Amino acid sequence: MKVLIVEDEPAIRETMAGYLQKEGYVCEQAGDYDTADEKVDLYEYDLVILDITLPGGSGLDVLRRLKKRNPETGVLIVSAKNSLDDKVAGLDLGADDYLTKPFFLPELNARVKALLRRRFFKGSPSIVFEEIEIDLGTNIMNVHGQPVELTKKEYDLLVYFITNQNRVLTKATIAEHLWGDYMDLADRFDLVYSHIKNLRKKIVQHGGNDYIKTVYGMGYKFTSP
Ligand code: CA
Question: What is the pTM of this model?
Answer without folding.
Answer: 0.77
